[in-house]
Design goal:
The chain has helices at residues 3-12, 29-41, 49-62, 73-83, 100-108, 127-137, 169-178, 230-239, 264-274, 277-295, 323-336, 362-370, and strands at 66-70, 90-95, 112-116, 138-141, 144-147, 153-158, 182-186, 194-195, 198-199, 206-210, 223-227, 301-302, 309-310, 316-319, 341-342, 357-358, 371-374. It is globular and about 65 Å long. Helix 1 (3-12) runs antiparallel to helix 10, helix 4 (73-83) packs across helix 5 (100-108) and helix 6 (127-137) packs parallel to helix 7. 37% of the residues lie in helices and 17% in strands. Strand 4 and strand 5 form a beta hairpin. By secondary structure, it is of the alpha/beta class. It folds into 2 domains: 3-23 and 277-345 and 369-373, Alpha-Beta Complex (Aspartate Aminotransferase, domain 1), CATH 3.90.1150; 29-274, Aspartate Aminotransferase, domain 2 (3-Layer(aba) Sandwich). The strands form 4 sheets. The protein has an 8-stranded mixed sheet, sandwiched between helices. A 4-stranded antiparallel sheet has the order 12-14-17-15. Residues 72-74, 98-99, 101-102, 160, 186, 188-189, 210, 212, 223 line the site of pyridoxal-5'-phosphate.
C-alpha cells in the first residue's frame, strides 16, 4: 500500500536504493576552514571574537534587538526562565506535544509545567485553549495570575513552533498579556520561519534557538536567546558566564551563575553554517513542494505552513488516518531504509510529568497518533 509513496520518496531524493536519512547535517570546505582557523588561533573556548560576531549575525538575521549565544537550546530555555525569575512556586503553561527539552527546562527551575492543547493546523500551543483554561482555572490577584485550586502563580508560557511551522504567536501574546503572563518562544526548530515578515522567536520578550546536529543549521551543539530588552540581555550574558563581575583580574561573582556560554569553536562553525541558511531554506521549500505533489492524491495529509506565515519546513510531516496506519507506514519506511519517525510521545505520558496539571489534550493526542516525519535533509 505504501510502495508508491516509498518509490516517490526515492525519486525525490534521486536515490533508487540505500538508506535515506531523516535529516543529515551538511558541511562544506568553508565550515572546515572556519573550524581549522579557530583551532589554530587557540581561542577555542569561552573567550574569542567569534562568539560576539555570531551574536551580531543572529541580530542581523532575525531582527532581534539582542542575541546571546549559549551551549544549547535547552540551556537557552533554562536561562530564559531564570531571567523571568521563574521558581518552585510557579506554574508555566506549555504544550504536551513538544520535545522534552521544553519541559525539562521548566523543571530545572523547580516550577511545574501546565499542559494545554495545540491547534491542529499549526501544531503549536492554542491561544483559544489557553484562554479557556485560564478563564476556567485561574483568577487575577494583585495583578498576578493565580491558579485557583493550588494558589500558584502562573508566571510564564512557553509555546513551541513545531517542525518550523509558526504557531499563532500574536494571538497567544494577547491572551497572556490579559493575564500578565510572560511568553518565551521556543523557536528551536524555527530558524528561518516567520509570521508575516517577522522572524519566529522575536515576538515574545525572549525567544530561544537551537543549533543542535539535527536542526536546520548546526554547530555541533549550540543555542541562543533572542531578547528585546537590553537590561535583560546583559543579565542573560552575566548568568550564562558564571555571573562573574567584570574585572581585569579579580574573580568576584554576584549570583549563582552557569557555564552556559557558547565556546568560540562552536561559534566559528555556527557563523559559516548560518550563511547556508538561505540555501537550506530554498532546498527545503523545493522538497516540500515535491512532497505536496507526492501526497496530493492520497488519503494522507501533508502538514502545510499556516496562512500568513512562512515555515522553514525543517522537518516535513504527514498525517496518516489513524495510529494503526501510522505504524504500518513507519514499518514500511523502516523496511525500505527510509528513515521516518513518529512525533514525540506526549510529555504528559512521560512518568515525570504524569501528575502534571493539564487541560484536555485531544488535538495533541490525535496528532501524536497520526503524524510521521519524513526525510527532509536539505542535502541528501
Ligand atoms: C532541539 C530542541 C530543543 C533543545 O535544543 P538543544 O540544543 O538540543 O538543547 C528545545 N526545544 C525544542 C522544541 C527542540 O526541538
Amino acid at each position: 500500500m505504501f510502495e508508491d509513496l516509498i518509490q516517490g520518496i526515492r525519486r525525490i531524493f534521486e536515490q533508487p536504493e540505500g538508506s535515506i536519512p531523516l535529516h543529515a547535517p551538511w558541511f562544506d570546505e568553508e565550515d572546515e576552514l572556519a573550524v581549522r582557523d579557530c583551532v589554530r588561533s587557540t581561542f577555542v573556548s569561552s573567550v574569542g571574537a567569534e562568539i560576539s560576531a555570531f551574536e551580531q549575525d543572529l541580530v542581523t538575521l532575525t531582527g532581534a534587538a539582542h542575541a546571546v549565544a549559549v551551549v544549547n537550546g535547552t540551556a537557552a530555555l533554562h536561562t530564559a526562565l531564570m531571567l523571568l525569575d521563574v521558581g518552585p512556586a510557579d506554574l508555566v503553561i506549555t504544550q504536551s506535544f513538544t520535545f522534552i527539552a521544553t519541559c525539562n527546562a521548566i523543571s530545572y527551575t523547580g516550577a511545574s509545567s501546565v499542559f494545554i492543547d495545540i491547534d491542529a493546523d499549526t501544531l503549536g500551543l492554542s491561544p483559544e485553549a489557553t484562554s479557556t483554561w485560564l478563564e476556567a482555572q485561574c483568577e487575577m490577584r494583585n495583578g498576578e495570575c493565580r491558579h485557583r485550586s493550588s494558589g500558584r502563580h502562573v508566571k510564564a508560557c512557553v509555546p513551541m513552533h513545531s517542525f518550523g511551522s509558526p504557531m499563532r504567536i500574536e494571538a497567544l501574546l494577547k491572551v497572556c498579556a490579559e493575564w500578565n503572563i510572560t511568553v518565551i518562544e521556543d523557536a528551536a526548530e524555527a530558524l528561518g520561519s516567520s509570521t508575516g515578515v517577522q522572524h519566529a522567536g522575536t515576538f515574545a520578550p525572549i525567544g530561544t534557538l537551537s543549533f543542535n546536529g539535527n536542526k536546520i543549521v548546526t554547530c555541533g551543539g549550540g543555542g541562543a536567546l533572542l531578547i528585546h530588552d537590553e537590561r535583560i540581555a546583559k543579565k542573560a550574558k552575566h548568568l550564562t558566564t558564571q555571573a562573574k563581575v567584570p574585572h581585569p583580574w579579580a574573580f568576584a561573582h554576584d549570583h549563582i551563575g552557569y557555564n552556559y556560554r557558547m565556546p568560540n569553536l562552536n561559534a566559528a562553525l555556527a557563523r559559516t553554517q548560518l550563511r547556508k541558511l538561505p540555501h537550506n531554506l530554498e532546498v527545503k521549500r523545493e522538497l516540500h513542494v515535491a512532497y505536496r505533489a507526492l501526497f496530493k492524491d492520497t488519503p494522507f495529509t501533508l502538514v502545510e505552513e499556516p496562512l500568513g506565515s512562512t515555515s522553514n519546513y525543517w522537518l516535513n510531516a504527514v498525517l496518516l488516518r489513524d495510529q494503526a496506519e501510522r505504524d504500518a507506514f513507519l514499518k514500511a519506511c523502516s523496511e525500505a531504509g527510509i528513515q521516518s519517525r513518529p512525533a514525540w510521545e506526549l510529555i504528559t505520558d512521560q512518568p515525570m510529568f504524569s501528575d502534571a496539571i493539564k487541560a484536555d489534550l485531544l488535538v495533541s493526542r490525535n496528532m501524536q497518533d497520526r503524524l510521521v516525519n519524513i526525510p527532509s535533509s536539505a542535502h541528501p
